[in-house]
Backbone:
């Protein structure tokens, strides 16, 4: 009986994918101990899935990121089908953009003219993978190409022969051949082996000159365990297994692309194709970042550098025009943020006892966020009844500023303290008053009266000098300092005069208004004697606002130390 009132939502029009009968499967008892060979297909499969394909500049930017991350195999396009792809491949080769330890890979259909054009694009390459494919699944054979199995095998064999013969025309290049039975996951596994064996028979790979057999889940058709069975069966029955690199190319139609790829490695695969953050056709390709970080979190070297998480996100977004979900595994903006008070408390307690040389063991944090250039940041909980929820949002509405998270955290503490003593709702106006009292005090020991800066090629490698006047309540003090910037020069001056070492940890400026009367808000977090203090200041001059904020932070530190004493 259907649970839907919509007659079109009818599960009976679909049939389950047939599972292999493998009572002696071995892969469930195995575990991953090493990273696979990686191949990025961002510049091919990822690019062809974009509404607006990458420009030349974007392709170059993505290429640079992939090389920096440590990819050794990079599929760079379909040069026979696209002039921009052809031109990009030529740029890589003629401009000597390919490191010696990086191999480019290109895709082509098993058609003579396309294969010939592919080799033209690759002329002069030191080493390259020529990746040829044809469709093998029943629906493709019967409804798209109207061919029987013999006809599909003939296409694959002819394509393999053409790839091999064209390679002989370019002896200066070290050629690697790759074949994909497109829609492998939807193809009878016995027939997939038959087609691949026909290609292998043409190419005659050896242990020293391996062929790549790529087995794609072009459409993810079944559960990951079923795909793993297909891979294990294939590896057990294909010819010349020791002369092959078994590659996997999964898509995310069922949301299991990463899981399918991981289980495929257990089942005998050697190599994984995918994209950064999962871009690709339909629901996307297998996300290499997620899989690599899965390995990393288990103490396995992923052999890719994911440490510059923000750089990866920024580059992928700039090249694909696709925003990264804030809860994307491992790299999302909110992944290491806890909104729950109990979670925040558990994390705080674990971090307090976590030793630097011990295995990572912190509640709710599977890895150390600092490994990815992140920090654990608690966020103000939105709780209308508590009196403190939404404080940052209300402050933004009142003053037009967006607090950085490190200031949100401290503001929340002040609001909570007020909420515990006051009855009823805390108004937006009160929140503004709390903010100004906490971060913009006007009763401190020091006040900035004036300043002058000088910059240029100065001695000792320093580039900035500052002379400032501070009022300490009774007299005017002239302070001098130097540094690599005006801020560091000013903190140097404060240290020389007051004896207090003020280290600027976080800094942010925001415009409050526009036009001739424009105002700016500077917000700082400083470290004084191992403790952090936040402060803010407002001025028409951004540098003046910044220096005033630092003075306020110093005043706050001095006041709190006096009270503690």
Residues:
């Amino acid at each position: 009986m259907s649970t839907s009132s919509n007659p079109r939502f009818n599960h009976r029009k679909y049939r389950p994918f047939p599972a292999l009968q493998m009572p002696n499967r071995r892969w469930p008892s195995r575990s991953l101990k090493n990273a696979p060979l990686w191949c990025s297909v961002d510049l091919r499969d990822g690019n062809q899935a974009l509404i607006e394909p990458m420009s030349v500049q974007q392709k170059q930017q993505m290429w640079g990121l992939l090389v920096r991350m440590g990819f050794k195999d990079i599929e760079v396009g379909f040069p026979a089908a696209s002039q921009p792809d052809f031109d990009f491949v030529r740029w890589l080769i003629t401009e000597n953009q390919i490191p010696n330890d990086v191999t480019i890979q290109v895709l082509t259909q098993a058609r003579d003219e396309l294969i010939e054009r592919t080799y033209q694009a690759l002329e002069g390459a030191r080493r390259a993978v020529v990746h040829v494919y044809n469709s093998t699944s029943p629906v493709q054979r019967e409804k798209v190409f109207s061919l029987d199995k013999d006809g599909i095998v003939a296409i694959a064999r002819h394509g393999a022969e053409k790839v091999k013969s064209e390679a002989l025309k370019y002896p200066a290049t070290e050629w690697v051949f790759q074949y994909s039975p497109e829609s492998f996951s939807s193809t009878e596994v016995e027939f997939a082996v038959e087609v691949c064996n026909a290609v292998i028979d043409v190419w005659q790979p050896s242990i020293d000159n391996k062929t790549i057999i790529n087995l794609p889940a072009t459409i993810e058709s079944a559960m990951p365990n079923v795909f793993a069975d297909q891979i294990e069966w294939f590896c057990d029955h294909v010819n010349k297994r020791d002369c092959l690199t078994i590659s996997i190319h999964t898509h995310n139609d069922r949301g299991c692309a990463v899981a399918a790829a991981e289980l495929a490695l257990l089942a005998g695969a050697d190599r994984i194709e995918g994209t950064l953050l999962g871009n690709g056709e339909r629901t996307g390709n297998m996300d290499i970042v997620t899989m690599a970080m899965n390995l990393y979190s288990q103490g396995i070297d992923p052999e890719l550098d994911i440490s510059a998480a923000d750089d990866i996100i920024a580059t992928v977004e700039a090249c694909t025009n696709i925003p990264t979900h804030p809860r994307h595994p491992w790299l999302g903006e909110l992944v290491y943020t806890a909104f729950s008070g109990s979670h925040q408390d558990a994390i705080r307690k674990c971090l307090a006892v976590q030793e630097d040389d011990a295995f990572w063991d912190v509640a709710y944090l599977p890895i150390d966020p600092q490994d990815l250039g992140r920090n654990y940041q608690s966020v103000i909980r939105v709780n209308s009844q508590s009196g403190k929820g939404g404080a940052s949002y209300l402050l933004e509405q009142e003053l037009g500023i967006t607090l950085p998270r490190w200031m949100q955290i401290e503001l929340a503490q002040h609001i909570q303290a007020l909420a515990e003593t006051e009855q009823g709702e805390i108004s937006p106006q009160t929140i503004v008053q709390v903010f100004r009292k906490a971060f913009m005090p006007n009763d401190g020991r020091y006040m900035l009266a004036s300043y002058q800066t000088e910059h240029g090629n100065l001695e000792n490698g320093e580039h900035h000098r500052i002379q400032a006047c501070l009022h300490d309540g009774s007299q005017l003090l002239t302070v001098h300092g130097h540094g690599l910037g005006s801020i560091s020069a000013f903190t140097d001056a404060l240290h020389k005069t007051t004896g207090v070492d003020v280290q600027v940890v976080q800094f942010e400026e925001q415009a409050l208004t526009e036009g001739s009367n424009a105002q700016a808000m500077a917000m700082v977090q400083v470290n004084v004697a191992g403790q952090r203090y936040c402060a803010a200041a407002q001025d028409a001059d951004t540098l003046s606002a910044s220096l005033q904020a630092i003075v306020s932070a110093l005043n706050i530190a001095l006041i709190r130390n006096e009270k503690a004493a």
Remarks:
- The chain has four domains: 37-50+70-273, 341-372, 391-439, 447-564.
- Residues 388 and 418 are 9 Å apart (CA to CA).
- Residues 542-564 form the longest helix (23 residues).
